[in-house]
Amino acid sequence: MAVNLDPDLLSILVCPKCRSEFRVDDEASELVCTNAGCALAYPVRDDIPVLLIDEARETKEADDHR
């Protein structure tokens, strides 16, 4: 399901955790933080981005939990 967001809105949205820009993941209906250190994926539900850190999904490997 493709993410249908206004390009102007997308250009001003930033990750609430680190303030980096997003890339759109249409397959997963998510906005993914472009900062490799953060890399959280925020869901887009009914064309509304849910920019709550508690709702975000980790996309990077958990290297720190050894």
Automatic annotation (TrEMBL):
Protein name per its UniProtKB record: UPF0434 protein FB561_3267
One GO cellular component, as annotated: cytosol
InterPro entries for the chain: Trm112-like
HAMAP family for this protein: UPF0434
Top-rank taxon, per record: Bacteria
Annotated Gene3D superfamilies: 2.20.25.10
Organism, as annotated: Kribbella amoyensis
Family per record: Belongs to the UPF0434 family.
